[in-house]
Structure formats: C-alpha cells, structure tokens
C-alpha cells in the first residue's frame, strides 16, 4: 500500500503477523543485517512460491562459545 506516493515503513507487527514468520527465521535475517523491509520481501516471495516457513536449528553451543571468546588456533 502506498500513501502520498511513498511506501509506508515495514513494522515489527508486519513481520510478526506474516504467515512465513518464525522466531528463528526472523533472528537469522536480523543477524545478517537485513532490514524489516528486506525480510518482508523475502517472505512475500517465498509465500508466493508456495514455500513453508523455515525453522532454523540453533547453532551448537561450541560455535556460540567460539564466536564470543575469539578463541584462536
């Protein structure tokens, strides 16, 4: 929907109410630095293609530890 020739900003409510929303998918996109508008575009595309929402598995604890502590070889 456009208002006065401009597209309104995507809000958190737009994302949380989207049929493709899952907490893990939203967290994944946010961790990659995507904006809400970009995330909505991905989900709209996937929904139109008939895809199912994604449920990402959490990373193993060791990966979390390594990324937070800068452990070197």
Name the descriptors.
single chain, 73 residues, mainly alpha, 4 helices, 49% helix, globular
What's this model, at a glance?
The chain has 73 residues and is mostly helical.
Structure in words:
The protein contains four helices and no strands. With about 70 residues, it is mainly alpha-helical. The N and C termini lie far apart (about 50 Å). The mean pLDDT is about 85.
- List the uncertain runs: none
Tell me the fraction of residues in β-strands, as a range. Answer: under 5%
User: What is the CA–CA distance across the termini?
Assistant: 52 Å
- Average of the residue pLDDT scores: 83
Whole-number radius of gyration? Answer: 16 Å
User: Helix and strand succession?
Assistant: HHHH
Number of helices: 4
Number of domains: 1
Share of helical residues: 40-55%
The helix/strand class is mainly alpha
Query: Globular, elongated, flat, extended or rod-shaped: what is the shape?
Result: globular
Strand tally is 0
List the helices and strands and how they pair.
Elements lengths: L11 H5 L6 H9 L4 H13 L12 H9 L4
């Amino acid at each position: 929907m456009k208002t006065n020739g401009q597209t309104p900003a995507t809000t958190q409510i737009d994302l949380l109410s989207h049929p493709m929303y899952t907490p893990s998918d939203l967290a994944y996109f946010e961790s990659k630095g995507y904006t809400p508008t970009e995330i909505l575009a991905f989900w709209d595309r996937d929904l139109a293609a008939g895809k199912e929402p994604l449920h990402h598995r959490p990373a193993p604890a060791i990966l979390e530890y390594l990324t937070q502590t800068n452990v070197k070889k």
